[in-house]
UniProtKB/TrEMBL annotation, chains A, B:
This is Zn-dependent hydrolase. The keyword Ubl conjugation does not apply. Binds 2 Zn(2+) ions per subunit. SUPFAM superfamilies: Bacterial exopeptidase dimerisation domain (SSF55031), Zn-dependent exopeptidases (SSF53187). It comes from Reyranella soli. Keywords: Coiled coil, Hydrolase, Metal-binding, Zinc. Residues 283-310 form a coiled coil. Residues 206-306 form the Peptidase M20 dimerisation domain. GO terms for molecular function: hydrolase activity, acting on carbon-nitrogen (but not peptide) bonds, in linear amidines; metal ion binding. Its cofactor is Zn(2+). Zn(2+) 2 binds at D89, E124, H377. Transmembrane segments: none annotated. It comes from the Bacteria.
Length: 405, 405
């Protein structure tokens, strides 16, 4: 069914919007580049005969009518990227969904249930927090006004940006309740690539804990201030980074921890920093373990803050418990991959995905394809064409089955 | 001799240029604010009858003729500040020198030797490295072309900025070789304030080692990348900060170490940083110990870089060995303070100063006054008026003695 060339061509064309050195993309949510990407997708959806609905958080859903007016089978993902992102993360799932529609059109096939292809607003969370914002609102987990009020680091709000780029739509988020939701995505991690497996059967998504810390110390002269008198905001930030690394190693399993963002003030070579703002990203498939990691980071911060005599303010930017996908639907992913003679492996997802929010309102599952060398959120993110094709074929067959029931 | 009100008034007026919240100053070297401060000082010098000479690195020297055409007795410091600096650092020494001249004018006193008041370009090193740039060029330790080529973080060069603000003068740096140089400065550290001593008799300046490190790792997804596969540039930077703290504690004595500046790329919550640029400032009064500290930091970086599989480039931004001031002149500082019934303490300087460069070409000494709570490079930097007056009196008496011989 799937036209490999057309799928790759669409990926190429979308990757041209916000293209950056090294083959990657910078299409942060609700920027001009995101708008250009959205416009391209909406054009394609309309050209494919889809009924396009834009909701009040900017989610875009294109619906292909079924022979009966039933709940649709939905697929989709996101087209926003991080600042130095790849071309597959999110985009692949959306364009594979579009390819399924285009292929059905070519084959002049009508399904019993409608088929819907969606892309959700601000999945990455790189510009606005929380991540998975559009799907979270869609699933009823976040109110519109709260979402509108989220601001980027320059104080620009989601609501204003949605209006500015023309994607504050009229539809009520969640109005269309799917029969099932299936998201196809690159793994973004190394497991399938290392094990040479073609399809990842995603059983769950690990819990995500994002906190931003603002540390206030006292700026002072780097040459004259004895170590015992320092109240160094940057030192606390550094000690947390090192602590998080040690904690992840000690806890083992799939516990990961990252300090990805940090800025110092005044940020000068000979001045003890009086302010540090930094983030901690903690994840675990096990909620109890994730809570343990959070508690231990908090205890470390309290201890160092007291010794260093600095003030620390913590702000939770996102907190999602681990999510288990619908067991029956997960089995079907495995079955369809097997029917195509593809090798499979059951696995949790390390990244957050829109699917984890959709699981709140309908049976949901995910299909992973390998990421070369496990690279993602990197301009060199890559998946082989054969794997892109295989994933889209599994998606198509599963959607057709779901749409016939 | 000294007019306290006039001295405090001049400090107030200069502090009005580049004033920032909290009572501090932002007059980074060769900015518009620095130009405005320079213009104010040059006006005051001319009004006080000084012969003002601007040299090719932007040092400004005002000379008051003596009864004989001998080498002058010189005092001075700098008027540039860090980004969130105080109002006394540097400025106090320059304005106290001007006050000595004004007081001699009022008293219609002529000295045997000429008296010179100088302010040197870019002492702070906050915008351009190395620090003490103007006095270093003056003393022959750095060539003009090398100094002109130094750039700030936006790539703007010293030579271009000197021309732009009109302070690329005609005089040859170092043309005027002083009989002696005495710099009056706030301590910028806690010792005099803690010990309730009025005058610090500065015997030496500790060695300064500034290095900027650029770390290249691999950006990757914070949720999907197992700890063992990370090549996290930010982690290396953090580990150096923590290591430097531990090293300073372990080495003890007056070893200090600071990571004051750090920036990450892409600097996003859910992306492992692929680039970190950070600085390390190490200081010790003992050159052998400073070398040991440098070697141990380098060894730590090599070890972590290998384990993390990141590349590290090191760039030395400044490196000055400890400096011992002229013993005879140091004794005289102590004697003059004693004659005014001021309490004294001999001490090294923790900060770098223009005087340490002048010691290369003439007998040099420094006078310190207390900094309340040891705060400096901080908008709350403060010295009590009585201490400001006392320091200026010691300076005046010492200069008069030197100018009469
Ligand atoms: N898939 C993906 O990269 N989502 C962004 C949110 C996260 O950091 O997991
Ligand atoms: N006095 C002073 O703050 N100098 C700046 C250079 C240094 O960091 O020591």
């Amino acid at each position: 069914l799937i036209d490999e060339k057309r799928l790759l061509g669409a990926l190429d064309e979308l990757a041209g919007i916000g293209a950056i050195d090294g083959g990657g993309c910078a299409r942060l949510a609700l920027t001009d580049e995101d708008k250009a990407g959205r416009d391209l997708l909406v054009g394609w959806m309309k050209a494919a005969g889809l009924d396009v609905r834009i909701d009040a958080i900017g989610n875009v859903i294109g619906v292909r009518a079924g022979s009966e007016n039933l709940a649709p089978v939905m697929t989709g993902s996101h087209i926003d990227t991080v600042r130095t992102g790849g071309r597959y993360d999110g985009n692949y799932g959306v364009l594979a969904g579009l390819e399924v529609v285009r292929a059905l059109n070519d084959a002049k096939r009508t399904t019993r249930r409608p088929i819907a292809v969606a892309f959700f607003t601000n999945e990455e969370g790189a510009r606005f927090q929380p991540d998975m914002m559009g799907s979270l609102v869609y699933a009823g987990g976040l109110g519109l006004n709260e979402a509108y009020a989220a601001t980027d680091k320059d104080g620009v709000a989601v609501g204003d940006e949605l209006r500015r780029i023309g994607y504050l739509g009229a539809a009520k988020p969640g109005a269309l309740k799917p029969h099932a939701f299936v998201e196809l995505h690159i793994e973004q991690g190394p497991i399938l690539d290392e094990e040479k497996v073609q399809i990842g059967v995603v059983e769950s998504v690990q819990g995500i804990s994002w906190t931003e810390y603002t540390v206030t110390g006292v700026s002072n002269h780097a040459g004259t201030t004895p170590m015992r008198l320092r109240r160094d905001a940057g030192y606390l930030a550094a000690s947390v980074n090192v602590f998080v690394r040690g904690l992840a190693h000690e806890m083992g399993g799939n516990q990961v921890g990252t300090v990805g963002a940090l800025s110092l003030r005044p940020n000068l070579i000979n001045v003890v920093p009086n302010r540090a703002v930094f983030t901690v990203d903690l994840r675990n498939t096990d909620e109890a373990k994730l809570k343990e990691a959070e508690a231990r980071v908090a205890a470390h911060i309290a201890e160092v803050a007291a010794a260093e005599r600095v003030e620390v303010e913590a702000k939770v930017l996102a907190r999602f418990e681990p999510v288990i996908f619908e067991a029956g639907l997960v089995d079907r992913v495995e079955r369809h991959a097997g029917a195509l003679s593809l090798t499979t492996q059951r696995m949790p997802s390390g990244a957050g995905h829109d699917a984890q929010m959709m699981q709140r309102i309908c049976p949901t599952a995910m299909i992973f394809v390998p990421s070369v060398a496990g690279l993602s959120h990197n301009v060199k993110e890559h998946t082989e064409a054969a794997d892109l094709l295989a994933g889209a074929q599994v998606l198509a067959n599963l959607m057709l089955e779901l749409a016939s029931e």
